[in-house]
Amino acid sequence: MKDIIIRGATIRRELFFFLLSFIIAFGMNLYAIITFKTLWAELLTQLPFLILVTLVIYLIILLARIVFLGINKLLRIKKNKSSV
Amino acid sequence: MNSPYKSRRAFIKKTIIGSTVLMSYPWLEALANESAISMSAANKVRVGIIGTGSRGQGLLYNLLAIETSHNIEIAAICDNYEPNYQKAIELTHGKAKAFYDYRELLDIKDIDAIVIATPLHQHAHIAIDAMNADKQVFCEKSMARTLADTKRMANTHYETGKILQIGHQRLFDKKYLDAIDYVRSGKIGNVTQIRAYWHRNNDWRRPVPEGKPELERKINWRLYKEYSCGLMTELASHQIQVANWVKDAQAVSVIGVGGINYWKDGREVYDNVALIYSYADGTQFIYDSMTSNRFYGLEEQILGDKGTFELEQNKMYSENPPQPAGILQLVNNIEKNIFEKIPIGGATWIPETALEYKGEYITGDFDVNETGISLEVFVDSVRRGKPTPGLFEQGYHASVWTLLGQQAMETQQKIYLPEELKI
Ligand SMILES: NC(=O)c1ccc[n+]([C@@H]2O[C@H](COP(=O)([O-])OP(=O)(O)OC[C@H]3O[C@@H](n4cnc5c(N)ncnc54)[C@H](O)[C@@H]3O)[C@@H](O)[C@H]2O)c1
């Protein structure tokens, strides 16, 4: 069986995207508390739900990254073919 | 199952002590002020049960459960239908004297109290005879088949000073007591409408022993006008009692319609009814009962400008339900924007469909046996030798407005309370 090697840089990059997702989720919570005039305590009490929202955002970003990389790869292949 | 005695102790602890409830319900005062029950033979309450059919046996079980703790004795039973007569003898292990004729039971001098669970048309004359024979009486609801009999029972109760407690067990149900307390304290605001219904999907018939068709009217007495007003006296009477109780008043008028639209099987009483009772302050009590659909079941809904009660479900709904967390609302809105279709050519207004809101419980303690408690209150009052304040009037007004409702349906007229029925 082949070993999968995850490089430190990859982990750091993914952690960055996860943190970014959490900051977006946290911002959403802040916005929601102000807009719907609910309790400030929700900054803490909604943390478990916020983790879920973070995961969803992270997955959306991941999807966007995959699509972006895919398009990039396609473009590069085309470029290489035309330059041959 | 909790024994009624245990239930009662729990009931006292949870309902009465340290609560404002007591002031609203004089009939609970007896429980709150209870002193230790004297166990002497001289203080024994001797009870006779007349009518030991389905309900009578239930009451008998409840009484047997408190025989020792409440120093009572089931001294006699009476039924004029052999299987139920035998069943009562069996339940009392042959210790109680048994009779076919209730008058012989009433002749026993040292019987203090009578429990009546005969068919409706047999309540009045038995209860009146019992009170005149110096007995205290617990009579199942409704009071009587006719308004005249109902008033005669009331007159005898007042003239003899004897107890006449009517079997409306919701008066001892924790969720009802708490709800009424909330109504009085304004928790659901101004009560402007009450709705109640009792829906079943069966023919309401009991099997008649094979080869004995002459027993049809005796066993299925509920279906014949001579003995009963069907859905009104058997079911609605409980809910009319609740409506009057919630409003702390009697209705002032009633209109209604009823008919037989499904069970065309020879019955004489309506298989569906719909009525509106009006109160002096303009509150309407909208009632219906049917026997061909049970989806909505049984409920009493109390509608105020600040909230709603569904009493049978033990539920309370605020008009301004607690908001979900902001983030949940935001996510919900995002979801709606993405997935909900925009109607083209549909309604331009937001449909006023019911809120999807599960509400809160009125009370967490609804494990009490309210029938058992109502019998304990009866036994207590027998021992005191005095009626429990306010109880008889609850039963009387419920019975009267049940029969006035029937009259409204039969005459197709708006019916008011006749002067002679006022107490
Ligand atoms: N409070 C409640 O929730 C509740 C529930 C069910 C019934 N009930 C009431 O209880 C009463 C009885 O209902 P049920 O379902 O037990 O009816 P049932 O027909 O099962 O029992 C009535 C019994 O009374 C007997 N009886 C009739 N005439 C008699 C007489 N003159 N002397 C002695 N016995 C006589 C019958 O033989 C029968 O055994 C009704 O008034 C009913 O409305 C109240």
Task: Report on this structure.
The complex is a heterodimer of chains A (84) and B (423). With 84 residues, chain A is an all-alpha fold. Chain A has one domain. Chain A contains three helices and no strands. Chain A has helices at residues 8-35, 42-45, 47-83. Chain A is elongated. Chain A starts with 7 loop residues before the first helix and ends with a helix. In chain A, 12% of the residues are buried. By secondary structure, chain B is α/β, with parallel strands linked by helices. Chain B has a domain at 2-171 and 369-388: 3-Layer(aba) Sandwich (Rossmann fold). Chain B has 14 helices and 15 strands. Chain B has helices spanning 4-16, 21-24, 26-32, 54-65, 82-91, 102-106, 123-132, 147-160, 174-184, 216-219, 231-247, 326-339, 370-384, 391-411; strands at residues 45-50, 72-78, 97-99, 113-116, 136-140, 164-167, 191-199, 253-259, 272-278, 284-290, 298-304, 307-310, 315-318, 360-361, 415-416. In chain B, the strands form two sheets. In chain B, strands 14-13-12-11-7-10-9-8-15 form a nine-stranded mixed sheet, with helices on one face. In chain B, strands 3-2-1-4-5-6 form a six-stranded parallel sheet, sandwiched between helices. In chain B, helix 8 links the parallel strand 5 and strand 6. In chain B, helix 4 runs parallel beside helix 5 and helix 8 runs antiparallel to helix 14 (391-411). Chain B is globular and about 80 Å long. Chains A and B meet through helix 1 and helix 3 of A and helix 12 of B. Bound molecules: nicotinamide-adenine-dinucleotide (NAD). Nicotinamide-adenine-dinucleotide is lined by residues 50-56, 78-81, 84, 102, 117-120, 122, 140-141, 167, 169, 234 of chain B.
